[in-house]
Structures are given as C-alpha cells and as structure tokens.
Amino acid sequence: MLQFGRNIAKHRILILIVSFMLLIPASVGYFNTRVNYDILYYLPDHIETMKGQDILLRDFGKGAYAMFVANGMTDREAAVLKEKMEGIDHVAEVIWFDSIADMSIPQEILPDELYEVFHSENGTLMAIFFDTGTSEDETMDAIEEIRNTAGEQCFLSSMSAIVTDTRDLVKKELFWYVLIAVILSCIVLAVTMDSFMAPVLFMANIGMAIVYNLGTNIIQGEISFITMSLAAVLQLAVTMDYSIFLWNSYREERKLFEKKEEAMAHAISKTITSVAASSLTTIAGFLALCFMTFTLGMDLGVVMAKGVVLGVICCVTILPAMILACDKLIQKTTHRPMTLNGKRFADFVVKHNRVFLVCLLILWIPAIYGYRNIDVYYKLDTSLPDYLPSVQANRVLEDDFDISTVHMILAKDDLPSRTVKAMLGEMENVDGVQFALATDSLIGSRIPSEFLPEEMTGELKEGGYQLMLISSEYEVASDEVNAQIERLETIMKTYDPTAMLIGEAPCTRDLIRITDRDFKVVSAVSVAAVFLLILISLHSISLPVILVLVIELAIYVNMSLSYFTKATLPFIASIVIGTIQLGATVDYAILLTTHYQQERLEGRDKLEATKISLASSTPSIVTSALGFFAATIGVGIYSDVDLIGSLCLLMARGALVSMAMVLLLLPSLYLLCDGLIRKTSWNGRRKKRAHHAELEEEIK
C-alpha cells in the first residue's frame, strides 16, 4: 500500500489528466442512459397484473391508457377533437360515445345509463389507448401533443400523464438538487476543517466520482428517476467521509515528513485500509436492496453500491493528486477550524452515563410504537404538487364523473354474450363501481347490434381475449378500492377462471403486497450483513449486537418522528431508509468502538477508555454527520416531488439521530457491558492472556 501511495504521488499530473479525460465517455454514458419515471414498471413480471399488461400491448396493440375530459364542448366539437387525437402518433384508439353508437342515432332511443357514461353537466369523457407502454418516451410525447391539441379546457388523467409531469418536474429540479447539496456541504466542511480550499477539492473529487457512476449506468440500459434524483446527493453524503479521512491523515503525516509526496504516500497507505473497511458496511446496506422483489430496490442498490466503490477509488487516487497539485493554494487558505471540545463533552457524557442510558432506553417504547404505525401512501400522484396538469385532471375526473380509476378485464373472447352480461351486471352492483362496459353488454339493450361499429368490436376482441372497462369511484391504493378489486376478481374468476384484472389500481394493490414482504427481507438482510462485517472487523461477538441495536434504535426514532409529527411517507421510504441509515451511519459507532477497544487494550480502565475514545472521536463523528445532513436537508426542503423530498429529509434527520445515539448511548453501553465485551472479544482475551504472562514474568 505504501508503494501504491508513492506511485500515486509521483504520477499525480498523469492521474489528473487521465481522470479528466475519463469524464468525456462518462458524460456520454450519462446523457445516453434512459430514465424510467414509472414506479409500477418495477413490479415483477410473473404476477398476473403484469402478464395482463403484456397481453394488452401484444394482442390489442394497447399499452398505456388515459381518461380524457373535455369541458364546454358540444358532441360535434368533441367528435372533431377525437378525430384529431386519433391522428397523433402512437394513439391506438380513442373510445367515446360515437365509438358505440353512430352520431346519427337519436339520443332519445339510447339508454340513459350509456349516455351518462360519457357525459356530465360540465363535459364529455373519452378513453384514450396508446400503442406504447406507460412510461415509454413515445407515450409521453403523445401526452404532450394531446395537451397541446386539446387546449386548456381539456384534462388528461392517467398514469402516463403522471409519469410525464414527474419527468418534467424532476428534470427541472435535478440541477438544483446537486447545487444545493454542494453549497451546504462546502459550508459545513469550510467551518469544521482547517482550509477553505479543501472543501472545493473534495467537491471536485466527489463530483468526478458521481459523473463516473452516472456514466457507467449505461451498462444497465436505464435507471429509475428515484435513483437518478438521489444518486448524486446520496453518493456525496456517504462518501464525503473518505475525503475527510485522507485529509486528516495527510495533515498528520505532514508533521512527520518534510516532503509532501512522502507524507501523502503514507496517508494513502493508511487511508486505503480504513476507508475500505468503512465502505463495506455502506456497500452492504445498498446491496441489501437488491433482495427486493420490487426491482426498484436492485436499481437503486446497484447504482449506489457502485457509487461507493468509485468514491473509494477516487479518494485514494484523484484526491491525493489534487491536494498535491494545489498544495500552495491550500496553505494560503488555512484557518482555525470551529470544532467541538471533545474532552469537555466526553466528561459530561460519562458523568451522566446512567441518565442517558435510562432516558434513551425508554425511547424504545414510543419509537417502536411510532415506527409500527407510520402512515404511508402508495398513490403516486400524492407525491406531486397540486399545480401539475395530471393532478388537476384526476380531480376533474373525480368531481365531474365520480371516477377515480378505471380497471380493465381481459377475458376469453368466446364467452357467451349472456355470460358477459351476467358478469358485468354483478360487477355493477359492487360498491364503488360506476359502470362496467364491454361489447357484448351493449347488444340486447335498446341499441340494435347493427349500430355497433365493426372497428369497435374488432378493437375490443383480439388474440383470444376481449377487453372490458370497469369504472371505480374509489381512489387508487385505498382500502376501499383494494376490497373492491378482491370482489371483482372473485366474480370474474367465477365466470372465467383465466380472466385477468389489470390497471393502475390492481398493480398498486400488488405493489402493496410485494413491498410489505420486501421490507421484512431487506431489513433482515441488511442487519445480518452489517452484523457479520462488524464481527469480522472488531473481532467480537457482543459488539455487533450492541452497535446494531444502537443504530436500529436511531432508525426507529427517526421513522417514528414521522408518526408523531403526523407526516405521511411514500411507501418506498419505509423500505430503503432503514437500510441506508444503518449502512451509512453505523460507521460512527465503529469509529468510536475501535478507539475504545484500542484504549482498553493499552491497559486503561473502562471509565478512562470511554472518555478518551469519546473525546477523540466526537469531532470526526460530528463533522461526518453534519456533512451527511447538509448534503440531504436542502434537497428535502426544496424538492416539489414528495417522493424525493421525504427520502432526503429522512436521511438528513437520520444522520443527526444516529450521531446522537452513538455519542450519548453507546458510551453508556461500554460502561455497562464492559465485562461482557471483554469476555466475547478476541482482542480482549489476547490482552488478558498477555497481562497474565506479564504477571508471571514479574513473579519469576
């Protein structure tokens, strides 16, 4: 490692040239990596709802769909608008009143319930189908063209419209996410470090690592918008410590070596060992997300684990080269840092250790209660601001037509007409169902069968399946709509065991089921992985239990605060935050514990060892936690996408809660469990045997 460090110092100019050149292909990769804005896309392919979506696209040529409301239009004007929309690229079909009955049919002979399906006091309703998927670029382009064609008095409600608005909003905000995180991080580092130039170099180094990470995502083909939005901010937050480790080590080595190159070589050698060990817990936390059935976890986990690895590599190669190249400028910008008096703080904590122990242990009760009763939402437009067109359209659809969502049924196309009518008749009696519509359900009503357009019957029957539409007044992800779906499926399977119920609400119902399982799996995997890594690094059986319990309490407290403040969180938060907080902040506990072990091995009693280790570790832990907080809090406050904002606020708060637990609770546990720690630690037993050998030697 020392020779590696010397090579880095010697070839620093070459390293900088190569690293800047690598930004070119990385940037190309970044701009050519597609971003997916549809969360439901990450549901597993084997579930029935996703299979049904594939059949709908493959056999019917219909992927995405939307409900379109046109206000203040006559039927003739609506018919003209419908024809224009059908001419837009990738619009497969527009189903409206004239799709079922010719406009020449007198309204008086039509059933009132049929007319009311497509009309309200304020406007008219159409169903638009696209020949591309919900989140495909072609669908989003078609959504924008429909909006431009229809005008302001028209509203487009659909998952694709939500995806389109999410894309536009995230693209607008993404630059500001990074800028805010960088500025706030620089302020924290500038205050807590001894050079104003060092934070600039840190940001430049981490920025390059982020570009490399985002550029190499092209290997995956595409990433989710959540991953894209969080990747830069989260990578900055979790890898900042590595730069601080190198900087502190370099400053210490400069006191011992006259040549800056030799000092840096020794600093790199020491940093590689500590940073590599530290990064493993963070990587393990992110990789635990890959065990989710909901593959958004794998998307985020792989990208962030890769980002941490690249952050470590850049920290021991590019950053040393930057520091050496800018050494004179660094010296000119040195100043006295603002640091916490670690000794005074340690004396206070140790003196009141029993008070902290009792108070913090009591926190388990409200923390567990709040954690288990957090309100979460699954309805995706809940995370978006009210001013977006898709959110406004959903409100208009609900107010004017009492429709919150539309389900689709794919059933055998050879079902007898009377069977279809009987099935839909039962479904219309289910609570919350506004109407149930299929080709066969119209035949035998007051509309003669010859009035049904041939193109309609052909469009709704393809590949051995027929398509039916069920309108629901219940909101997606609500208990009412999930119960409604269960009832509809029971009726549907009675008449056709092979039939499938698809749409946003059934997919969201599956999302709720799957993520509930994923939460348990990811939590177990992350805890087990971190436990094992701590056991190996600290050579102890009891310490992993203590450290994981401390951070888990911090996670519970962090999440429970959302319950007590009556905040509703996006469903993904409850899954990923615990894993991220555990992997990223357990390093605080490992740093403090390593110092404590060293002090005990050197023969100091538990009281003195706790004071010394706490005094020496506190400044580093505080700087690290504040850096994590600064990198995420600004984005959490600024973002209009609640899915992003909530995650960042939780991470920011989690860093501070973990810091408090480590600095206040962990030292108290050292004093309480010292005997157990020494009996279950290999280093402790070796020290005890060495002490006995010294006594025997003195006796001789």
Share of helix, binned: 55-70%
| Total number of strands | 13
**N- and C-termini, Cα separation:** 42 Å
- Helical/strand content category: alpha+beta
Envelope shape: elongated
Q: How many H/I helices? A: 28
Low-pLDDT stretches: 443-452, 687-695
Determine Rg (CA atoms, Å). Answer: 31 Å
Largest sheet properties: 5 strands, antiparallel
Mean pLDDT across the residues is 87
Question: What fraction strand?
Answer: 5-15%
Structure description:
The structure is a single chain. This protein is an alpha+beta fold and 700 residues long. It has 28 helices and 13 strands. Strands 8, 9, 10, 11 and 12 form a five-stranded antiparallel beta sheet that branches. The chain has a four-stranded antiparallel beta sheet with strand order 3-4-2-5. A two-stranded parallel sheet has the order 1-6. A hairpin with a 2-residue loop joins strand 10 and strand 11 (465-472). Helix 8 crosses helix 26 (606-638), helix 24 (542-564) runs antiparallel to helix 25 and helix 25 (571-601) runs antiparallel to helix 26 (606-638). The longest helix has 38 residues, at 642-679.
Q: Can you describe this structure in just a few lines?
A:
This protein has 700 residues and is an alpha+beta fold. Helix content is 69%, strand content 9%. It is built from 28 helices and 13 strands.
SSE arrangement:
Elements lengths: L1 H9 L1 H20 L2 E3 L11 H13 L4 E7 L3 H12 L4 E5 L1 H4 L11 H7 L4 E8 L6 H14 L3 E4 L1 H34 L4 H20 L5 E3 H30 L5 H29 L7 H20 L2 H8 L1 H6 L9 H10 L1 H10 L1 H9 L2 E3 L11 H13 L3 E8 L4 H12 L4 E5 L1 H4 L11 H6 L1 E2 L2 E8 L6 H17 L4 E3 L1 H35 L3 H23 L3 E3 H31 L4 H33 L3 H38 L2 H18 L1
Parallel strand pairs: 1-6, 7-13
Antiparallel strand pairs: 2-4, 2-5, 3-4, 8-11, 8-12, 9-11, 10-11
Helix pairs in contact: 1-11, 2-9, 2-13, 7-8, 8-9, 8-10, 8-26, 9-10, 9-12, 9-13, 10-11, 10-12, 10-26, 11-12, 11-23, 11-25, 15-26, 16-27, 17-24, 19-22, 23-24, 23-25, 24-25, 24-27, 25-26, 25-27, 26-27
